[in-house]
Design a protein that fits this description.
Bromodomain-like, two-stranded antiparallel ribbon, mainly alpha, 5 helices, single chain, 2% strand
């Protein structure tokens, strides 16, 4: 069976809704509050949902190559964000000063008060939950990388069919 535009878009849509739904469920029902980077990592999944839903609705009126390449790019960005966040959690490199324990030290009571008031409860460099030793950020990076590969291979397969 050939991969049609609707089948491809539907598969990407199902995976994207599942991943984003799991993130939201872990937040609202699982009690895992997201950090600043976690919230940033959700944006590519929202974009993938919008792109794949529009592609599915367009159906055969739209070539598969364009949306597949666009989604591959979106998932590469998502993989970069997820793997960066995992690296911050592993202390391989510093994260944003607003949400890591390595922020600047206060030199006065007023600076300390400002830091305490503006401090986010969840730190980006601390793992809240992991599976098989991989944090949620790491899983996000790996799944995003797999989706980028799937979309790129789909686009490549389409362009090869056009060339022959």
């Amino acid at each position: 069976m050939a991969l049609t535009t609707r089948l491809f878009a539907g598969a990407v849509l199902i995976v994207s809704v599942t991943v984003l739904g799991a993130a939201l469920a872990s937040q609202y029902w699982g009690g895992l509050d997201p950090c600043e980077l976690c919230l940033l990592e959700r944006w590519p999944w929202w974009a993938a949902i919008a792109i794949s839903a529009a592609t599915w609705l367009a159906g055969t009126r739209l070539s598969l190559t364009g949306p597949a390449l666009l989604l591959a790019l979106v998932f590469l960005v998502s993989a970069g964000l997820g793997l960066y966040h995992a690296g911050v959690e592993l202390h391989w490199f510093p994260g944003p000063s607003a949400c890591t324990a390595s922020g600047p030290a206060a030199t006065s009571i007023d600076q300390l008060r400002a830091q305490l008031v503006g401090k986010q409860a969840v730190m980006c460099d601390q793992v809240q939950w992991s599976l098989l030793g991989i944090s949620l950020a790491g899983w996000n990076g790996l799944v995003s990388l797999a989706m980028a590969g799937f979309c790129a291979m789909t686009a490549r397969g389409c362009s090869l069919r056009w060339a022959t």
